[in-house]
TrEMBL record, chains A, B:
Residues under site feature: Involved in the stabilization of negative charge on the oxyanion by the formation of the oxyanion hole: 110-111
Self-association state and partner proteins as the record states: Heterotetramer of two alpha and two beta chains.
Top-level enzyme category: transferase
EC number: 2.3.1.35, 2.3.1.1
Classification via HAMAP family: ArgJ
Annotated positions for site Cleavage: 179-180
Acyltransferase among keywords: yes
Function: Catalyzes two activities which are involved in the cyclic version of arginine biosynthesis: the synthesis of N-acetylglutamate from glutamate and acetyl-CoA as the acetyl donor, and of ornithine by transacetylation between N(2)-acetylornithine and glutamate.
SUPFAM superfamilies cross-referenced by the UniProt entry: DmpA/ArgJ-like
Residues binding substrate, per UniProt: 147, 169, 180, 260, 379, 384
Active-site residues annotated for this sequence: 180 (nucleophile)
Gene: argJ_2
UniProt protein name: Arginine biosynthesis bifunctional protein ArgJ
Localization of this protein: Cytoplasm
């Protein structure tokens, strides 16, 4: 399943020794064709890891024959030598796989920023991974890219004669400006690179892009979509976009569900906004309000903190016409006290906030998490 | 001391019963002249509490004869009835003080958003406070405006024949867009309203405005500056601005030092920026990065998280020329690994981050705090 759910793909996940604890840390995904079409979206962070700089160039050519992904080190802020390490990794993959060129090998890394990768372990790991490539290696590949993830994340949808599958990792530093963390999607549909690119951008814009667990944007975010054409089916464009969006949405929801230390998954529906951009701006402001995130952790339907978050945006609204529901109880009406807050049932993991801007007809959904002592512990007790 | 350090001011702080626990919750500051000049700066949050809307109008007239401040309730998001409560409070103050007009009485409130004030307790409290006004009541007034503050905050500077003093409250929701929380400054210098306004804006711009404890902007932020002229001294304009800035800076530093649940006070120096605005943007981005705030709580000099925060801004910089010092150890040089991070001594409460953008000659200092389990507890265990 995962990246090997679609025909025409091989994958492997192994322990190369990059992680000190001996857990799997190196994944290889190979497109065996007949087509090698690909597209990618990357972090909006201007401090980009070496593998992001490399893979952005690779994807520009519209062809990717293989993706090599490591956990245990981000290879970010490592200077020219770090970039050479990424280049050497792609060369090694091309060497061990017959008929591949380094310029068509994408590289992705995740882990601690500011530390060089142990190339003496990584390069032999590439040989080991290549030796273990199989048509059902998707699960192992998904496991090998985990960092603080408690579970591995995979998804797939089967359509009429073709399939889209994928894997993702991510449990913190989750506030993508374009994509999020590492994800590889594969399809056996016969789709050219330009159409893959359009589909991937459309899908990530309303899925990975609207996940905001902790307001922190990674240096390494990478989402790749590879098409093998092995099914021989040329899908209808809209159906293909919808399938890619479905897999991205499934994986994005899994990221939120596994966020570091979180006890609540928060769905924020901003409705009746003047524009979709304004709905997203308001949703992100609510998602990033630490005081609200603490209140929701304490199962306190503190709508005043929702209003104070909306008030810091530049979106169109009249403070006296704002309405806010928490779990469908309209606790704030016309900017003031609404239904009894005691009616809000906060016992479940999923919390739904609806912010009605009363300013138009556009809307957006942002997903976030609460702020907990466990999040503080996970991110203060050791470097990550 | 506090607001009664300058001549010409009376103050009182009493328990009106607004707070359930019986602690002091109502402060009154009266300017006995001969002048009644005043200026004010208020929250940039577009969701403004009723007392902010009221006091903005009062201050536009350039005259304030009295300020009434309550803790125990923000009177924010309370609709037209909440505004009537503020109006009634000002009328009550004008009634009990001979020769005052409600249009010259400023009102400030702080506490839980979305709850009406208990006017049956507040209005009798105004009479009680008026009866206790004295020329040394500044300390009691400072105590009465506390909410989650662990200590009351006062400051004063004495110049050649004139004085500026003040009080402030604030321990959370600290990310002023213009001012922060509640603060009242008084002076016996003879300064007209326009000059007070210029001095207050200049002073708050680099003090209260650059405090960013938790990224959350209040609905109630109010800073007032009242001049009695009682000293008869007309100070030189620059010296007056400097004195106001000194008092604001002192109070702002006290806010950070008492932030909810914090174990570290973080001073962020952004240097060599292209513009001062860009320096502030970068400083705020660093101040608001939850992962960095957790790392500093854990005494981990995690400079990668500083770079990832800088990378999300639109400031002018080249990622390969960024330098970062933590407690004066340059752990990141030219965007990559610098001096040994083991050299950084993180044992003390104050942590200093220096971010060198290598893009110009401008700079700014932002103050923040770490993110702790105690912050989560204080803001999740009960509504505030």
């Amino acid at each position: 399943m995962s990246v090997t759910a679609a025909q025409g793909f091989l994958a492997a996940g192994i322990a190369a020794g990059i992680k000190a604890n001996g857990n799997p840390d190196l994944a290889l995904v190979v497109n065996s064709g007949p087509r090698l079409a690909a597209a990618g979206v990357f972090t909006s962070n201007r401090v980009k890891a070496a593998p992001v700089v490399w893979s952005e160039q690779v994807v520009k050519g519209g062809r990717v024959s293989a993706v090599i992904l490591n956990s245990g080190g981000a290879n970010a802020c490592t200077g020219p030598l770090g970039f050479q390490d990424t280049h050497a990794t792609a060369e090694k993959v091309a060497d061990v796989l017959d008929g591949h060129s380094a310029g068509e090998v994408a590289v992705a890394s995740t882990g601690l920023i500011g530390v060089r990768l142990p190339m003496d372990k990584l390069l032999p790991g590439v040989e080991k991974a290549a030796a273990e490539l199989t048509g059902h290696g998707g699960e192992k590949a998904a496991i090998a890219i985990k960092t603080t993830d408690s579970v591995h994340k995979t998804a797939q949808v089967a359509k009429d004669g073709w399939t889209v599958g994928g894997m993702a990792k991510g449990a913190g530093m989750l506030a993508p400006g374009l994509a999020t963390m590492l994800a590889v999607l594969t399809t056996d549909a016969d789709v050219p690179a330009e159409q893959l690119d359009a589909a991937l951008r459309a899908a990530t814009r309303t899925t990975f892009d609207r996940v905001d667990s902790d307001g922190c944007t990674s240096t390494n975010d990478t989402v790749l979509l590879l098409a093998s054409g092995a099914s021989g089916v040329v899908p209808e464009a809209a159906a293909f976009v919808e399938a890619v969006r479905e897999v991205c949405g499934d994986l994005a929801r899994q990221l939120i569900g596994d966020a570091e230390g979180a006890s609540k998954d928060i769905r924020i529906d901003v409705i009746n906004a003047a524009t979709e951009d304004e709905a997203v701006e308001v949703g992100r402001s609510i998602a990033r309000n630490n005081l609200l995130k603490c209140a929701l952790h304490g199962e306190d339907p503190n709508w005043g903190r929702v209003l104070s978050a909306i008030g810091t945006t530049s979106a169109t609204f009249d403070p006296d016409r704002l309405n806010v529901a928490i779990n469908d109880v309209w606790v704030c009406k016309n900017g003031s006290v609404g239904e009894d807050r005691e009616l809000v049932d906060m016992r479940y993991r999923e919390v739904r906030i609806t912010a009605d801007l009363a300013a138009g007809t556009e809307s957006a959904v942002i997903w976030s998490n609460d702020l907990t002592a466990d999040y503080v512990h996970e991110n203060s007790a050791y470097s990550s």
